[in-house]
Design goal:
Elements lengths: L1 E2 L4 H16 L3 H17 L1 E2 L11 E2 L4 E10 L7 E9 L6 E3 L4 E9 L11 H4 L2 E7 L5 E8 L6 E3 L6 E2 L4 E5 L3 E8 L2 E3 L6 E2 L5 E5 L5
Antiparallel strand pairs: 1-2, 3-16, 4-5, 4-15, 5-13, 6-12, 7-8, 7-11, 8-9, 9-13, 10-12, 14-16
């Protein structure tokens, strides 16, 4: 299991604090500081996952609980309607996101915003967020919107416009609590429903054609 590099500015202060407390003769507090640092480190874990199924499958970009599946229009993705799969990430979930489908990155756009609770319906409109739009080899467009939550400090995306990406590669993370929206064309079949738990890079979320669950 890898650890995202963004972890170290948060973890190292706990290590230094533990060392200082140990030198000052407070081993109990030093141990508590190390445990706190370990918990923060686990928040940034990046478990290696692989999916060997159909190349047409769109995978979950995020770990977490599916809180909504609906169909919307989204001008940032272009004309037409899109199924939206909303995933809420608790503080216990892996907060690294992965590319849901191979293709070319058409849009990689950050937007400043507020930090209201990620489970609020308007969080996707008012919160800090980053939109990634990927064009698949067949021309279909897939969107991933990383949305900061109440405790989230920053949205990070590693992808740039023009990048050619493969399904399952790391695409970014959200620091401390968040939400991720996956958007696929209305013609796609959604393979998950509200209440399901998903794993990034492992759970089939949608596929071209057919009726949704």
């Amino acid at each position: 299991m890898k650890i995202a590099k963004e972890a170290w500015p948060f973890v190292l202060p706990f290590v230094f604090l533990a060392g200082l407390l140990f030198v000052l003769g407070r081993p109990g507090l030093a141990a508590a500081a190390l445990v706190a640092g370990l918990l923060v480190l686990l928040f940034f874990r990046d478990p290696g996952r692989a999916y060997e199924g159909d190349v047409g499958i769109v995978l979950a970009p995020a770990d977490g609980l599916v809180t909504r599946v609906d169909t919307i229009e989204d001008a940032e993705l272009g004309p037409g309607r899109y199924h939206r799969i909303v995933t809420f990430l608790s503080v216990f979930d892996d907060h690294v996101q992965r590319v849901p489908a191979a293709g070319e990155v058409l849009v990689s756009r950050y937007a400043r915003g507020r930090k209201v609770a990620a489970f609020r319906e308007d969080a996707g409109d008012v919160n800090e967020k980053h939109l990634t739009v990927i064009r698949r080899p067949d021309g279909d467009v897939i969107g991933v919107r990383q949305i900061a939550g109440l405790l989230a400090r920053r949205v990070v995306c590693y992808l740039n416009e023009g990048d050619h990406v493969h399904r399952g590669q790391s695409m970014g993370l959200i620091k401390f609590g968040s939400r991720v929206d996956l958007l696929v064309p209305e013609s796609y079949r959604v393979l998950v429903k509200k209440g399901d738990r998903m794993q990034n890079g492992a759970t089939p979320a949608a596929q071209p054609g057919g009726e949704s669950r």
